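JOB MANIFEST
job_type = single_chain_structure
chain_count = 1
residues = 121
[input]
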Amino acid sequence: QVETMESGGGSVQAGGSLRLSCAASGRTASSHFIGWFRQPPGKEREFVAAISKSSASVDYADSVKGRFTISRDNAKNTVYLQMNNLKPDDTAVYYCNGYVDFFSRRTFEDWGQGTQVTVSS
């Protein structure tokens, strides 16, 4: 059962910004950790960022540190990803998902449709 709906993607030029939103429901909404992931064209899905339920703990992939910021609004069951200084390598379909167990990096099995981000040079 899909429990996430991603939105906010689009096409931007390098150096631009986008803000992605992830509306969560069910088990995902109550997950202690929720993460953003992306799948570049022709590549495997990869981790981007994660945030704890209290927002006290965050984690980022090295490739996005200093450019992306993850945040969470529990009242709205929504997780955001602010992406600044976008690069062509950030082009991908972006997904969010809850973690069954963050320390083993195991997520729920079902994935939403994602939102496409395209960055042109």
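[summary]
Helices lie at 26-29.
The first helix runs from residue 26 to 29.
exit_status = 0
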